[in-house]
Sequence to fold (166 residues):
Amino acid sequence: MNVLTCAACGSRLTEPLRLLPEVPPRPEYDGLKNPDGSRHAPPTLPRGAYAVDPEPCGAPYVPHPDPEWCGSAHPGDVCIGDPDGPGCLMSAGPRDTWVVHPEDTRGRLSANPAVEEVGCCGRPGREGPNEVCAECGTAVATRYSECYGPYETHFLPDAVRVESVV
Ligand SMILES: [Zn+2]
Ligand SMILES: [Zn+2]
Fold:
């Protein structure tokens, strides 16, 4: 098993995780309330697992070169119309982020005070890394928990290290 640790201060940022060969398919979600009252999609990753996402994820978003294209801004998210043009936006964010179940970071990350997000019930994750290391405050991850997006936490590959634990 491995854990992700903060590259800046060495603090542990996740529960013990096993590496999956790829990000599982994003589950379908009807946007309705979950039994616990939350409104977010089923988690993409099971507890205790992580995977590398080779696709660009999160901010910044840039206009797609094809104005007819209307796909999801990044996998699992919805289509975002370009406020300044005819087409839609796509993620030009970092590739090869480490994806985990958001609950596997509980108590180890804090909300990034530098990021202001407007969501209807969760964290859209569109303004850049919205989670910091709870120990040293370095921005390390983006949490997606809005009802129209995926339910995932993506760690920046340069901000964390992978360490093995017994
Ligand atoms: Zn840290
Ligand atoms: Zn919502």
